[in-house]
Design brief:
Length: 121
């Protein structure tokens, strides 16, 4: 059974940091890109970041560039999202997803349950 489990969300003051983790199982982790997405109340889900499996190339949405860093540890089947300089507008439920290819495509085919990130002033 394919599973992705996010952790690391929480309540943080603006300017602070959080590190999200996505632990995967049930598929060949090394073969797939992993993406992070988020959904704020009343808004559509948006892509945050992605890391390929082929060459560890990374992608960031414009508003996250310079603040967020994605990484993966294939030995632990885990992807991390380090989030620095957090802003109230980063408040959302964050999801990780296995993408259908080794490269980033912006589409998830298997999803975690999400972890809440709340940034307050």
């Amino acid at each position: 059974e394919v599973q992705l489990v996010e952790s690391g969300g929480g309540l943080v003051q603006a300017g602070g940091s959080l590190r999200l983790s996505c632990a995967a199982s049930g598929f060949t982790f090394d073969d797939y890109a992993i993406g992070w997405f988020r959904q704020a109340p009343g808004k559509e889900r948006e892509g945050v970041s992605c890391i390929s499996s082929s060459d560890d190339s990374t992608y960031y949405a414009d508003s996250m560039k310079g603040r967020f860093t994605i990484s993966r540890d294939n030995a632990k089947n885990t992807v991390y999202l380090q989030m620095n300089s957090l802003k109230p507008e980063d408040t959302a439920v964050y999801y990780c997803a296995a993408e259908p290819y080794s490269y980033c495509s912006g589409y998830g085919v298997a999803w975690g349950q999400g972890t809440q990130v709340t940034v307050f002033l």
